[in-house]
Amino acid sequence: MPYTLAQAVHSDLLIKKSRFIGCVQPVADRAQAQAIVQRLRAEHPAANHVCWALLAGGQSAAVDDGEPSGTAGRPMLDVLRHQQLEGALATVVRYFGGVKLGAGGLVRAYTDAIAQALLQAEKVERQAMACLQCSIPYALEGTLRREIAQAQAQLLAIEHASQVVATIELPASAAPAFIDRMNDLAQGRIGWIDIPELP
């Protein structure tokens, strides 16, 4: 699943007097998703249901939160899958308006709430990232920082011990060329710590 979302987007639907407040947003994992759902429950204490669906790092969830089984979480999860999203949370807060929608009506309502939000969403292609760690002499720190900037990588951490130890994140596809370039520039004075398997 190659896409995630740039930021949270919302929808607000009124269907037979029931209000469906939909949201899709990027998340890292299940723990972050559950924290968002808890916050929604606190923000909407009068809501009848806070249903949600998650696709993140192999973790998926489809929660009906009191709606008839399979009428809320699963349809929302299907929308995320159909849109080829990963690292995404779909939530719908429902205020019941007194008119029952039936199973088919609920499936349509929850599907529509997420589909409407996704119409405004900016999808971004997911890129596999590699985390590299290396140790270099102090004299090469400036060179390393320049190469990191040129490679559009990110310096996650730097420690100054007997040598400079740097933790770098960059697209996995760019990592082999970055390693080769640093090996050339350092002329054997760079040590790589736990290089991940790269494509």
Properties at a glance:
199 residues; alpha+beta; five-stranded antiparallel β-sheet; 5 helices; 11 strands; elongated
What report would you give on this structure?
It is a single chain. With 199 residues, this protein is α+β, with helices and mostly antiparallel strands. The chain is 32% helix and 35% strand. The chain contains 5 helices and 11 strands; from the N terminus they run E-E-E-H-E-E-H-E-H-E-E-H-E-E-H-E. It has helices at residues 30-43, 73-82, 102-119, 141-150, 175-186, and strands at residues 3-5, 9-15, 18-26, 49-56, 59-63, 88-95, 123-125, 129-136, 154-160, 164-171, 191-193. The strands form 3 sheets. It has a 5-stranded antiparallel beta sheet, sandwiched between helices. Strands 9-10-8-11 form a 4-stranded antiparallel beta sheet, with helices on one face. It is elongated and about 75 Å long.
Characterize this entry briefly:
The protein is an alpha+beta fold and 199 residues long. The protein is 32% helix and 35% strand.
Blueprint (SSEs and pairs):
Blueprint: E1 3-5, E2 9-15, E3 18-26, H1 30-43, E4 49-56, E5 59-63, H2 73-82, E6 88-95, H3 102-119, E7 123-125, E8 129-136, H4 141-150, E9 154-160, E10 164-171, H5 175-186, E11 191-193
Antiparallel strand pairs: 1-7, 2-3, 3-6, 4-5, 4-6, 8-10, 8-11, 9-10
How far the N terminus sits from the C terminus, by CA atoms, comes to 18 Å
Helical content band:
25-40%
Described by strand count, sense and barrel closure, the largest sheet is: 5 strands, antiparallel
Strand order of the largest sheet: 2-3-6-4-5
User: Stretches where pLDDT falls below 50 for ≥5 residues?
Assistant: none
